[in-house]
Structures are given as structure tokens and as C-alpha cells.
Design goal:
With about 270 residues, the chain is α+β, with helices and mostly antiparallel strands. The protein has a single domain, classed as Roll (Pnp Oxidase, Chain A). The chain is built from 7 helices and 8 strands, in the order E-H-E-E-E-H-E-E-H-H-E-H-H-E-H. It has a 6-stranded antiparallel beta barrel, surrounded by 4 helices. A hairpin with a 7-residue loop joins strand 5 and strand 6. This is Flavin-nucleotide-binding protein. Pfam families: Pyridox_ox_2 (PF12900). InterPro entries: Pyridox_Oxase-rel, Split_barrel_FMN-bd.
Length: about 270
């Protein structure tokens, strides 16, 4: 029997309203967007500020209790932070209050741009994109084993295999200065746009306009450059794991952006066959 695909519950604050057909709620898709984003933006309320706070952070979905879980399983979000940061302090204060079993409410956003969608009119221009928002409660990780698990998880999300190819374990000073937050996810959603431009019928029937204005998609993707050795590096050759990551990572993001541009075209061809 096929594995049942899990979805996050649709809450009023997490349901995609505008262009709802682009909304996605499956755990695997949302977790993939989050785990492949180089930066996450974490929003929370600060009691000493009239405005919500938002911070760029590094994070990764995972499960300390079930390390072999895949992206389609129920996972926590681990966030890496400095021990005395405002978010860490607020989470620490919450853990000492009556809300200890809940944690600090946070919202986390991740986004990727896959293409510039150039249409006949400015109003019809768009992006091909993948975005996700998670809602949950953050708690400070105090268990040393779980903290090390999260630190390894986050380090390897930057460059796979980097944790094992560096000085480990962290020393006492490093462990003391670094904090990890575990966010228990309550719900989340994604919004995805792919394909070619969509213009109004009147513009599509204007032959002069069609002859004058180029339309289509410019794929967008982040590439990794050639590794540059540091001033005290004594390793002659770039390690194989790093070379492989740069090569495969660049190929993957290029392929994803190009595929997003023609997704609807390819689907139409399949449907017509």
C-alpha cells in the first residue's frame, strides 16, 4: 500500500487565500522548501518593542527522537543562535514560566525564486517561486545529546559532510556560547508558482503587441563558486566531498529552475498525447 501523505491542518492564519490553487499543505513539500533555504526568517513578538521582530537565521527540520525520519514525517525545526540573543532570551524566559510546555510563539518563512516571468504587460509579470511558512512554539534545547544532534544537522545543511570533516565535538566554550531552539510545529503551508506567463485574452489577440514584446521566463538560481582557500589553509586539494557538493548542488538548482519554467508546458504536452 502507498504511504499516506501527511498534511498540516488548515488554520485561518495558515490557509492560502489569494490564488488558493497554488497552496500546498503536504509536510514533505513544505519541509523540503525549508531545508533547502539558505536563510530562514523568524518572526516573534518582543515585549519591549511596538513592532514584531524578525531575524534571519539558519535552521533545519529534523527529529531527535527519530533521526531516520524522512521529510514527509512529523518533524521539529531546529534553529541555531547565539546564547544571549533576544530570541534565545525570550525562549529561555518562557521555559521558566507557566508556558513551559508550550514555548514562545514564532512564525518562520522560507522562500526560493526560480524564475523571472516576463509577460506582455507589467501587471502580468511574476516570479516562479516556492515559499513556505511554519507556525510553532520555540523552546531552548537543554539536553546535550539533542543539542549536538541539532548542531550536526544544521552544519551539514550548509555543506553535507562538513561536521565530520571539521574539529568535533565542540569544546566547552563553544557549547556554552551557542544555543539551539527546537520549534514544535503547529501548522504550516506553502505557495508555489511555476510555468510560463499568463496574459489577458485581449493582449494575446494584439498581433502588434506580440510582435514587439518578448515574453517568457528567465530561470533564477543561486550558484556555488570555486572554493577559495583561506589564509592558513594547508590542505593542497579541495576535499572530494566539497567538490562533489559544489558540482551537484549547482546542477540541481539549475535543473529545478529550468524545470519550473516549463512545468505547465510539459504537463500540457503530456495531456495532449
Amino acid at each position: 500500500m502507498p504511504r499516506h501523505e501527511l498534511e498540516y491542518p488548515k488554520e485561518p492564519f495558515s490557509t492560502v487565500k489569494r490564488l488558493s490553487d497554488r497552496g500546498r499543505y503536504n509536510l514533505e513539500g513544505i519541509h523540503r522548501i525549508v531545508n533547502t533555504a539558505p536563510l530562514l526568517h523568524v518572526s516573534f513578538s518582543s515585549p519591549n518593542s511596538p513592532f514584531p521582530a524578525i531575524l534571519p537565521m539558519i535552521g533545519q527540520m529534523g527529529s531527535f527522537a527519530r533521526p531516520s525520519s524522512d521529510l514527509g514525517d512529523v518533524l521539529d525545526l531546529y534553529l541555531h543562535g547565539y546564547v544571549s540573543s533576544r530570541l534565545i532570551n525570550l525562549s529561555r524566559d518562557t521555559s521558566k514560566s507557566d508556558e513551559a510546555t508550550i514555548g514562545l510563539p514564532v512564525a518562520v518563512a522560507a522562500s526560493h525564486i526560480d524564475g523571472l516571468v516576463l509577460a506582455l504587460t507589467p501587471n502580468s509579470h511574476s516570479y516562479n517561486y516556492r515559499s513556505a511558512v511554519l507556525f510553532g512554539h520555540a523552546q531552548l534545547v537543554t539536553d546535550v545529546a539533542e543539542k549536538l544532534y541539532a548542531m550536526e544537522l544544521i552544519t551539514n545543511s550548509v555543506v553535507p559532510g562538513r561536521w565530520a570533516n571539521s574539529r568535533i565535538p565542540p569544546n566547552a566554550a563553544e557549547m556554552q556560547s551557542t544555543s539551539v531552539l527546537r520549534v514544535r510545529i503547529a501548522t504550516g503551508s506553502a505557495k508555489i508558482r511555476s510555468g510560463m506567463p499568463h496574459d489577458e485574452r485581449g493582449d494575446l489577440e494584439d498581433e502588434a503587441l506580440l510582435d514587439r514584446v518578448w515574453t517568457g521566463v528567465v530561470p533564477v538560481y543561486q550558484t556555488l563558486g570555486e572554493p577559495v582557500p583561506g589564509p592558513y589553509n594547508k590542505v593542497a586539494d579541495v576535499p572530494a566531498y566539497l567538490q562533489q557538493y559544489v558540482m551537484e548542488g549547482n546542477a540541481d538548482v539549475k535543473s529545478a529552475a529550468e524545470e519550473a519554467a516549463v512545468t505547465e508546458v510539459a504537463k500540457k504536452v503530456r495531456d495532449d498525447e
